[in-house]
């Protein structure tokens, strides 16, 4: 069995793989590597355009791809499905960093941290004005779209701060850490008056453009909107309109339809919008956590051809 | 019994006070009010320079002052003690907002929120650089100076994020939510290598200038230092030196020795320093929470001359 690397691993991880029986490791391709030289590769770890080229070659040997991300919307899912290739992701490892990221913005907003940073740049001591704006998180409501690993972890921390959590998913099924759940598309009064709204949905045909003008127009609580899901789920023009019309008190976008954002984009200077460069899922041991999933799946796959965790449903797209 | 107001109350609160037997209310003084007209006032709610003037008058009638703050270092404690006046503060009501404020900065720092805000102003998409810096809070150590209401509440939330909490107080006595406690002045290795250090000490002779050069020099963990206590506890020049020499990764000052900070102060532009204008203890129901303490003490005081909560030890200064 041949494993092709499209993501860097450490020397120690290399040794762990080398100790597995019946496994040959094919190192990262260089700019000169011919995809045809990978025709006998069975398994790929990571993904990039080299993988796309290999997948398009007839008689490629691919049986399984282990991505290093949770979202796999950037991969050629139709071709993967059509060729009968299995796909696993790293869903789960991003839950902790993304939940901490979201809580960080909730508190930075509610406690006047974002406003203080702005005032500092202008050398302005705005004590009285800010004291009238800051509020405690306790007893405010957060609406979270996506009740998987990430949404659940966010809701868990929100409960630590005595917040009310409502969740939205495909069918409105209940989920741990949520005080109530609804089908995405429902607009209960708790959503309309929520103080915080978070998108943690995977990108699928259904969730593309989900947060558009009519979504923002129904809101009455002047919430802070946070996108830690995927950029194309939000209609950026509609979001900017909602900010300009104060339907939203603010917005945080960690993901955008087109990344990186060009230096001359007007979005950088949109009032009450905070941008971060797609970092919410990062943490110091990311590579090790992703490798741990590869390794567990690999041991099982070499033993009996089964994958034991994080297999993607190619029809659902997550 | 006469109660003089030096802090605004609502109409509803006025009615609550009016319903108490044997209590006369003296409204807020104007610029023209002669302090001598308050000579028969027994109780004061709030404090300002008018109170200072009244206190200096011979034959004033003051028996009890209810402050609207937790820290009372700005009041003439020696004169209050010498005249046998009782003093109560609002210690306790700031614990929740200050703890949320501190957690907000921990997360804004660890998750790259502060760095993203800075990059946004420069229109820079710094994804790779930031992804290498961000880290999860879990398993990092926070050292908290002050283990009262505020320190305990901060430690509580830090435990929610699976952090290790060490506390410092006068004698090193144990306190809830702290994994270990030490006497202030001790320098255990857990302090030296801590990732976060928070000052929540009251200002007394002992804590004035406590955080000076030798304190910062002992640190090896390049922590973020946060002051939510009182400004004069930190030697600002030593702090700036520690930032310049990277003994500290960053610092957050919500309080300063002199407030407000002048617009032309160089401190505004100190790299890796985040300033907020003394807002950490604020929240939307501040006035109501402070009044609730006044009202409970007042009921007891009118009944039998006793104060039932938040009496300040005038020798200790908190």
From TrEMBL, chains A, B:
Boundaries of every D-isomer specific 2-hydroxyacid dehydrogenase NAD-binding domain copy: 104-280
Keywords: NAD, Oxidoreductase
UniProt cross-references to Gene3D superfamilies, sorted A to Z: NAD(P)-binding Rossmann-like Domain
Keyword check for NAD: yes
SUPFAM superfamilies noted in UniProt: Formate/glycerate dehydrogenase catalytic domain-like, NAD(P)-binding Rossmann-fold domains
Classification via InterPro entries: D-isomer_DH_CS1, D-isomer_DH_NAD-bd, NAD(P)-bd_dom_sf
Any one GO molecular function term: NAD binding
Pfam families attached to this UniProt entry: 2-Hacid_dh_C (PF02826)
Organism: Agrilactobacillus composti DSM 18527 = JCM 14202
Protein name in the entry: D-3-phosphoglycerate dehydrogenase
């Amino acid at each position: 069995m041949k494993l092709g690397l499209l993501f860097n691993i450490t020397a120690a991880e290399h040794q762990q793989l080398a100790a597995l029986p019946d496994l040959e490791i094919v190192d990262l391709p260089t700019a000169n590597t011919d995809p045809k030289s990978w025709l006998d590769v069975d398994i790929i770890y990571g993904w990039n355009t080299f993988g796309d080229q290999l997948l398009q070659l007839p008689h490629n040997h691919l049986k399984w791809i282990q991505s290093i991300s949770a979202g796999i919307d950037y991969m050629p899912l139709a071709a993967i499905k059509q060729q009968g290739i299995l796909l696993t992701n790293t869903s789960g490892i991003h839950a902790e960093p993304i939940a901490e990221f979201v809580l960080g913005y909730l508190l930075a907003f509610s406690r006047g941290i974002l406003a203080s940073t702005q005032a500092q740049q202008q050398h302005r001591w705005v004590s009285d004005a800010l004291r009238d704006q800051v509020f405690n998180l306790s007893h405010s409501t957060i609406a979270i779209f996506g009740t998987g690993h990430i949404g659940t972890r966010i809701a868990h921390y929100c409960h630590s701060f005595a917040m009310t959590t409502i969740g939205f998913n495909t069918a409105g099924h209940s989920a741990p850490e949520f005080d109530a759940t609804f089908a995405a598309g429902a607009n209960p009064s708790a959503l309309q008056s929520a103080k915080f709204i978070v998108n943690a949905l995977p990108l699928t045909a259904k969730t593309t453009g989900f947060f558009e003008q009519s979504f923002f127009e129904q809101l009455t609580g002047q919430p802070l909107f946070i996108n830690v899901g995927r950029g194309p789920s939000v209609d950026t023009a509609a979001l900017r309109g909602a900010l300009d019309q104060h339907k939203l008190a603010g917005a945080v976008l960690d993901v955008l339809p087109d990344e990186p954002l060009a230096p001359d984009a007007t979005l950088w200077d949109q009032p009450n919008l905070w941008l971060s460069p797609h970092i919410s899922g990062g943490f110091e041991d990311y590579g090790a956590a992703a490798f741990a999933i590869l390794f567990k799946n690999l041991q099982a796959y070499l033993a009996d051809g089964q994958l034991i965790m994080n297999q993607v449903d190619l029809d659902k797209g997550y």
